[in-house]
Amino acid sequence: MRVCVVGAGPCGLTTIKQLRDEGHEVVCYDKYSGLGGIWLRDGDDGTKTKAFDHLKLTISMRLMAFSDAPYKGGRKFYSRQEYFDYLTEYANRYKLTGCIQSNTEVTDVKKTTQGYLVTSVCRGVESREKFDAVAMCSGPFKTPHRQFPELAGFTGEVVHSAEYRNAERFRGKRVLIVGLAESGADIVREISETAAKTTLSIRSYTFLLARIVDDHRSTDSRTVRAHHHEMYDRATKRPVPYKTFWGTSRLAKTAFGAVSVGLGLISSIGGIVQAIRERIKPRTYADVNLLGEPMEPYKMDVGCEEEKANWDLIKKWNEKSHPEGSWSPRGIFCKNVSFIPSIVKGKVNVNDTGMARSEGATVHFKDGASAEYDAVVLCTGYERDLKLGDLSVADGNVRNLYRHFLHPEHDGRVAFIGFLRPFSGGIPICAEMQARYFARVLSGKLQPPKNLAEVIAEEKSWEEYWTELSPRHTESHPSQVLYLDALAREIGCLLPLRKLFLNPKLFIQIWFGSFNPSAYRIVGPHSFPKAALADLYAEPVEDRGNMCYHMSVLRMMPTSVHPKHMMP
């Protein structure tokens, strides 16, 4: 088919690649001067949504890389420029740039009896082209959320995080930062280093996870399938709507459980033996940590040292993130604690009651406090902008699509790819798997469920239950592992049970090892088994997640929390 891809950021690039793997003809339009989306910095971009100067990924490259271009350097956290370079290399490696028409904005999409008529504008010249299908990969970062009645009377500067590049413009100023997301955590830290006064205004507490645990390991290395299945399947009475390794067969599930118990004990014993070895002969590590900072003093995030005061504040913050008696992760995470030392040291004052009103330079808060500010920085996210011509999503809620991407009203010809954000995990690999699915639907090799509306409703209900503490974030998903495994099963790239049963080493790595997208390239369409297995086994044995959950992560959580409910 002839397919239009809107957007050449990470999600657009992998969509081009997966569509071409299935033999489709692809034309990609992007409004910027080159590929990369928000990662591209092309000259005077101060009013565009772009990644800021000193941004560091909150997910390691193991999970931010695509499975058809896995990162070979462990679980390092890339900088903005490093990640852009990775995307450029990916596009060059698979010769994707020839499909991209830069400086071209799609302004309209009309559904016709033959397909879709796409209107685009390039340097003032409008053109129209016909396509058989459309993939919307423009991402959720299009329309910044700026409308706050509480700031109607404020006369100072108001800046959205979309326009933030660095803290220099706030040097010596009194700054109020509204909202806290992962980028907001970095912005709070950076501004507090240059501003005369910094206040963080929040209305609720987001659960915090450090990027590094145990001094030298990434927190996302503790994401394991065994835990996700235990937490969302075995430990609750709400049935998981996704089919994974054993499908709906109780016999297969029982056999899988029996094998996992035996191999889990072996895995745990191996971890204990390795821990003893390290006590006898400690390992030596690089001079810099995964964030590129000096290894000593040990840190858990950018500039955030392993100190009791920092740990205590994270613990108190997380206790406030969930109502009493609800300790399972049912709200989005902030995988960034770099701002914590700024609060501990008194550089940042936190007001958790929210803004009430503003008059001139004065902002009043709901607890009666007030203060004068020169600037307000909004870390308040983006509007749900999911309409383009005849393409739209009901209520602007991607949960009304199949698996957040396939439109139920267009016979498999329209996909919104990259609009799913897992609690802990990377968006790019989710987009890649969505694109693989979409490409095979267009090839006629895969059929979505016939009772699509019923399946969408069932999965939507399950997601809303597990994300009830973040009701506005309808793009969020509690488990990247369950989601991707379910997609992989339909695509045909999920490892079959017989292969796992006959290979205990592979079983242990897949079930108890750190989650790695290379698992989806061992079998199925467009696989490369030898290279995928090598990448899967590349992480050292002692870095595998296992039944003995790591205490360094638990130190961030209340003492009443059961490990199985709070691990990432």
Q: Any overview of this molecule?
A:
- This protein has 568 residues and is an alpha/beta fold.
- Among the domains are: 2-142 and 382-494, FAD/NAD(P)-binding domain (3-Layer(bba) Sandwich); 149-206 and 332-378, FAD/NAD(P)-binding domain.
- The strands form nine sheets. The chain has a five-stranded parallel sheet, covered by helices on one side.
- Strand 4 (104-111) and strand 5 (116-122) form a beta hairpin.
- Helix 1 (10-21) runs parallel beside helix 9, helix 6 crosses helix 13 (504-512) and helix 9 packs parallel to helix 11.
- The two termini are 39 Å apart.
- Mean pLDDT is 90; it is low at 542-568.
Query: Roughly how many Å is the radius of gyration?
Result: 24 Å
The level of helicity is: 25-40%
CATH architecture of the domain at 2-142 and 382-494: 3-Layer(bba) Sandwich
Shape: globular
Unreliable residue runs = 542-568
- Number of DSSP-assigned strands: 26
Strand content: 15-25%
The oligomerization state is single chain
Which secondary-structure class do the elements indicate? alpha/beta
- CATH fold assignment of the domain at 2-142 and 382-494: FAD/NAD(P)-binding domain
- Total helices: the number is 16
What kind of sheet is the major sheet?
5 strands, parallel
Look at the structure and give the mean pLDDT: 90
